[in-house]
Amino acid sequence: MSVADGPTTVPPPAVPLRKNRDFWLLWTGVGISALGGSVTRVTYPLLMIWFGGSAVDAGLVGFAALLPLLLLQLPAGVFVDRWDRRRTMIVCDAVSMVSIGSVGVALLLGHLWLPHLLVVAFVEGSAGIFYRLAERAAVRAVVHTDQLATAMSRNEARSRGAGLLGQPLGSTLFALVHWAPFVVTAVGHLVALGNLVRIKKEFRVERRAGPNRLGAEITEGVAWLFRQRFLRSAVLLVASTNLLFQVLALTLTVTVKEHGGSPAVIGIIGAASGVGGLCGALSGSFFVRRMRPGTLMICTFAVWSLLMPMIGLTGNPVVLGALYSGMSFAGALINVMAGVYQVQVTPDEMQGRVGSVGSLVSSGTNSLGALAAGFLLASFGTGNTVLGVSAVMAAVTLAAVLNPAIRTAERVRIPDA
Q1: Residues near 405 by beta carbon (within 8 Å), at least 6 away in sequence
Q2: Cβ-based neighbours of 417, under 8 Å, separated by 6 or more
Q3: What is this entry's stated membrane topology (predicted)?
């Protein structure tokens, strides 16, 4: 597979990543923001299922949070390539802080209103799209090309660490007082905003001459990605797995409740999953440098196919924690690979658009997965739902094995850090 035109500029000679002030301000700020997102993700279904709601209500809130992935990905990519990326992230932190804070205030006053939660979930999800696209594009602006694999691996470790801490933190705060997770998340966005303000490096370069119309710019991004055989096949396959994991996420909450568990148990299982993901993220650059991307993807799918059906056979928190940990380890590896590959081969002035197209295809229908999860669990129960998900995962793995673009994709050559 040929690699597309590389970036138009090369960063200045590398300083050790540990001494790169702008990278660490970005890394910690985004980490704090991601921690808040992890806290709210675990809190929404707890709020619905434990206090006056149902699995269907939880599915509706999940649908609202993920719907922006379907509606806003493509225009967000265009605007991220047009706008100053640091300012975009600052605005997103501010919007998230206000919207999430409003839920904390409402709960503090004793109100729980489903339409309010739906609006806030949609707004937070929308801001998150712009935020993630801008941050991924910004990484290459603050680190040297030779350090890209290490930086992306640390970013994935940061995300997994946020999930590791966010699950038990969210459930524990919720158990103490229902409004606390939302207030803590709002404060976290304020801190992240302060970090971004302190960064000196610009997050973008001058764009090449090209279309300056929304439709034309979206088309350019779509056309570029779909000319890449591996990326095209990979995002379509990953889209299927993301739908399945939306079902499994709600399945865990229902399973724990059916077996007499509490929100704290979900937090412990989430922590175990986070440990697995963190280990996978920290070792991600090792695997990315030594394995072809298609081989890594097929191995990940195979691990998921083996572990998923076991979830439907147990309600033991220890076993569930081990299963989710293994799946998270494999998932972190594929995330590091995808991030390095996409950022490395995509021209800088198209980072936002290509990232948005990839995210739309791979995750845009996640909202439907969250919505379907509630109805599937209500209609078929946890065991049958998990078995159905597992059968689909096995079919996706077979499709990856049979796809020549996946099997033969060459590595993007990345120097050792």
Answers
A1: 1, 229, 230, 232, 233, 294
A2: 17, 146, 147, 149, 150, 285
A3: Multi-pass membrane protein
In this structure, is residue 12 part of a structural domain?
Answer: no
Taking the CA of residue 10 as centre, how many other CA atoms within 13 Å lie in the half-sphere pointing to its CB? 3
Q: The domain containing residue 191 runs over which residues?
A: 17-407
Quickly list DSSP for 124-164: HHHHHHHHHHHHHHHHHHHS-GGGHHHHHHHHHHHHHHHHH
The one-letter amino acid code at 130 reads F
pLDDT: which is higher, 42 or 33: 33
- C-alpha separations of 311 from 76, 160, 228, 275 in Å: 36, 21, 35, 18
Alpha helices in 259-292 (DSSP H): 263-282, 284-290
Q: Once rounded to an integer, what is the mean pLDDT over residues 173-184?
A: 87
d(CA 230, CA 403): 10
Question: Which of these, 241, 206, 197, 189, lies nearest to 365 by C-alpha position?
Answer: 241
Q: Which of 107, 112, 91, 78 is nearest to 33 (CA)?
A: 91
Using DSSP's 3-state secondary structure scheme, residue 98 falls into helix
Residue with tokens 């000679």: 13
The pLDDT of residue 205:
54
Question: Looking at the domain assignment, is residue 231 inside a domain?
Answer: yes
Q: CATH number of the domain that 242 lies in?
A: 1.20.1250.20
Q: Which of 269, 267, 247, 248 is nearest to 42 (CA)?
A: 267
Whether 11 is in a domain gets the answer: no
Backbone angles phi, psi at 141, to 5 degrees: -80, -20
The pair of structure tokens assigned to 264 is: 């704290």
Closest CA to 269 of 348, 325, 188, 353: 325
Q: Three-state SS for 389?
A: helix
Q: What is the pLDDT of residues 57-110, one digit of tens each?
A: 877 888 888 788 778 888 888 888 888 888 899 999 999 999 999 998 988 888
Q: CA-based diameter of the chain, in Å? A: 61
pLDDT tens-digit readout, 297-341: 999 999 999 999 998 888 888 999 999 999 999 998 888 888 888
**How many C-beta neighbours within 10 Å does residue 187 have?**
16
Its pTM surpasses 0.85: no
Whether 393 is covered by a domain: the verdict is yes
Per-residue confidence at 204, pLDDT binned at 50, 70, 90? low
Give pLDDT tens digits for 370-412: 778 878 888 888 889 999 999 999 999 999 999 999 988 877 6
**Residue 216, helix vs strand vs coil:** helix
